[in-house]
Amino acid sequence: MRRATTVVLLSFTSLLAVAQTQGPNFIYEVACDAIADVISSESDVYYPETQEYTSDNFHWALSSTTNSTCTVEPGTAEDVSKVLLVLGVTRTPFGIKGAGHTANPGYSSTAGVQIAMTRFTEVTYDAEANVARIGAGNIWDNVYAGLEPYNVSVVGGRVSGIGVAGFTLGGGYSFKSNEYGLTVDTVVGFEVVLPTGIIVNATADENSDLFFGLKGGFNNFGIVTTFYLQTHPQTAVWGGTIVTTGVDDEVVAATQNFYNNVTDPKAAILTTFNYDAALGMSITEMTLYYNAPTPPDGMFDDFIALPSLTQNVSTRSYLSLILSTVEASDGLRGYFHTVSLYDYSTSLLNAIVNETEFWRGQLESDVPGVFISYDVEPILPSVFSHGSDSAWPPSRENGILPLNIYYAWASPENDTLINHIMAQSADYLTQIAVAEGQDVAETSLYPNYALYNTTMERIYAGNLPRLREIKAKYDPFNVMGLSGGWKF
Ligand SMILES: Cc1cc2nc3c(=O)[nH]c(=O)nc-3n(C[C@H](O)[C@H](O)[C@H](O)COP(=O)(O)OP(=O)(O)OC[C@H]3O[C@@H](n4cnc5c(N)ncnc54)[C@H](O)[C@@H]3O)c2cc1C
Ligand SMILES: *[C@@H]1O[C@H](CO)[C@@H](O)[C@H](O)[C@H]1NC(C)=O
Ligand SMILES: *[C@@H]1O[C@H](CO)[C@@H](O)[C@H](O)[C@H]1NC(C)=O
Ligand SMILES: *[C@@H]1O[C@H](CO)[C@@H](O)[C@H](O)[C@H]1NC(C)=O
Ligand SMILES: *[C@@H]1O[C@H](CO)[C@@H](O)[C@H](O)[C@H]1NC(C)=O
Ligand SMILES: *[C@@H]1O[C@H](CO)[C@@H](O)[C@H](O)[C@H]1NC(C)=O
Ligand SMILES: *[C@@H]1O[C@H](CO)[C@@H](O)[C@H](O)[C@H]1NC(C)=O
Ligand SMILES: *[C@@H]1O[C@H](CO)[C@@H](O)[C@H](O)[C@H]1NC(C)=O
Ligand SMILES: *[C@@H]1O[C@H](CO)[C@@H](O)[C@H](O)[C@H]1NC(C)=O
Questions:
Q1: Is the beta carbon of 131 within 6 A of some atom in ligand 4?
Q2: pLDDT tens digits for 269-303?
Q3: What is the DSSP string of 384-435?
Q4: Final residue of a domain: which of 86, 116, 146?
Q5: Of 237, 359, 360, 454, which is most buried by a Cβ count within 10 Å?
Q6: Range of the domain at 67
Q7: What is the whole-number distance in angstroms between the Cα of residue 394 and the centre of ligand 2?
C-alpha cells in the first residue's frame, strides 16, 4: 500500500465558507482551481473553449455528453488520488470517463469535474506471466495493436473505439467469450485509487473482496488506473462484416443454423437488424469471426451466400477485424437496453425482426433521424463456465445471451418517448421468450447494455447486500456516490 501525498485540506475550509454564499457552480470552480493547484506536472485541468475540454467531455452518444465546469486529465495514480481527495472534501459531482461509450446519460459525465483517463495509455506485455498491463484510458483497438507484435491478445471489445475501462468493469462480452469467458473472467488484477486517497491492488489474494466487487461493479469503489489481463496466443483470424437488405428470412435461417449447429468455441457471430431513417431503409449487418486464419469448411457458407450490399470478410489480424466494424453514432442521441436470453428460436428471431419493422412504422414520421437496432449475440450457453465469483453476473448457473437493443435519434424532445418504447419492446420480447419456455422474466440484465432506469436488483440480484458491504468498507463517506452510474 502506498499513501498518497498529503493534500493540504485546511485551505478548503475557508474556501467553502465563501462558497456557502455563492451557487453550486462557484463551488465546482473552486474544486477545479484546487485540483489545478495540487496536481503534478504530469496532469492538467482544462476549461471551456479548449480542444482538450471538448474531447474530455466527448461521448459516443450525444445524450451522454454534459458540459462540465472543467476537465482533468490525470497522468499518474498519485494525481488521481489528489483529485479524489479534493472532490470528496468539496463534495463536488464528477464523472469518470474511459472512452465515453456508455449510452446512459450521466454515467461517465457531469456538470461538475469531468475526469478523463486518456493519459493512462500503457499497454505492456509480461511474457513470463502471460499478463498484459493495460492503462485505464485505452480503447481496445490500441490494446490489440500493442499486443500484436507478441502474437498474443486479450478478451476484449468487438467494435472499434470501445473503452477498456467501462467494458471490463461491467463484464465484457467478446468474440473470445466462447473460449475464455467474459473479460472479467480474465482479469488477474486491478490497480485502483480508493476515495480515501490510498492506491491499492485488488487480486484474488490481495483485497479479494474488492477484486470481486470490481468485476462488474464499475465505479462504486474507486477509480481504476491499470487493468491486468490474461493474454492468449493470437494468430491471424478470419472474418469481417456482411451487410444485406431485404433478405431477413435468409438471415434468420443462417443465424438459427449457426446457433443450433456450431459449438466450436473459436467461432462467433453478431447479427444486427437495423432500420436507418437517414438511408430510409432496413439494413442487416452480420459480423463473422473465427479464431484461426481459415474456418472449418462450410461453417459460414450460409452467410457468405447471402446477396449482400457489401462484404468485407477475409483472413486478417484481430485488430483489422475490429476496425472493419466501426459503429458511428453520427452525433445522435442514443440509449441501449437489453433482454437476457437463454436460447434463440426462429420464432423469437422473427419477433425481433418484427420489432424493428413495427417501431419503424410508429416512429419514422415523428422522430427525426431515428435509427433502430436489435443485435442478436448467439454465444454459447457455457459462457459463464470459464470464471467464478464476480459482481456480475450474479449467478453463473445459466449463460446469459444478451440481446442488445439500440435506438438513436436527433431531438431531446423525443428522449422520454424512446425510453418508454425501448422498455416496452424489451418487455414484449421477454414475454415472448417466457411464453416459449425460457425462465427469463427476472433474469439479471447485463449492466453495459441495461437502460438507465433499470433497478439495481434486476442487475446485481443476490449479490447486492455483499456489494453494499464492500462499498461501505472501501468508500465509507460515499465519495463515489458523487459520480454517476449504477450505484450500490
Ligand atoms: C458501439 C458500441 C459497441 C459495444 N460493443 C460491446 C460488446 O461487444 N460487448 C460488450 O460487452 N459491450 C459492448 N458495448 C458496451 C460497452 O461495454 C459499454 O458502453 C462500456 O461501459 C464502455 O466503456 P467506456 O470506457 O467506453 O465507457 P465510459 O462511458 O467511459 O464508462 C462507463 C462506466 O464505467 C465507469 N468508468 C470508466 N472508467 C473508469 C475507471 N477508470 N474506474 C472506475 N470506473 C470507470 C464510468 O464512470 C461509467 O460509469 C458497446 C458499446 C458501444 C457504444
Ligand atoms: C457544450 O458547449 C458547447 C459550446 O458552448 C455547445 O456547442 C454544446 O452544444 C454544449 N453541449 C451540451 C451537451 O450542452
Ligand atoms: C509472430 O508470428 C509471426 C508469423 O507467424 C512470426 O513471423 C513472428 O516471428 C512472431 N513473433 C513473435 C514475437 O513470436
Ligand atoms: C500493483 O501490482 C503491480 C504489479 O505487481 C506493481 O507494479 C504495483 O506497484 C502495485 N501497486 C500497488 C499500489 O501496490
Ligand atoms: C443446423 O440446424 C438447423 C436448425 O436450425 C437444421 O435444420 C439443419 O439441418 C442443421 N444443419 C446442419 C448442417 O447440421
Ligand atoms: C474492410 O475493412 C478494413 C479494415 O479492417 C478497411 O480498411 C477496408 O476499407 C474495408 N473494406 C471495405 C471494402 O469496406
Ligand atoms: C410486431 O410487434 C408488435 C409490437 O411489439 C406487436 O404488437 C405485433 O403483434 C407483432 N407482430 C407480429 C406479426 O409478430
Ligand atoms: C419528437 O421530436 C420532434 C422534433 O423535436 C417533435 O416534433 C415531435 O413532436 C416529438 N415527438 C414525440 C412523440 O415526442
Ligand atoms: C423506465 O422508464 C420507462 C419510461 O418511464 C418505463 O416504461 C419503464 O418501465 C422504466 N423501467 C423500470 C425498470 O423502471
A1: no
A2: 999 999 999 899 999 999 999 999 999 999 999 99
A3: GGG----SSSS--SS--EEEEEEEEES-GGGHHHHHHHHHHHHHHHHHHHHH
A4: 116
A5: 237
A6: 7-116
A7: 39
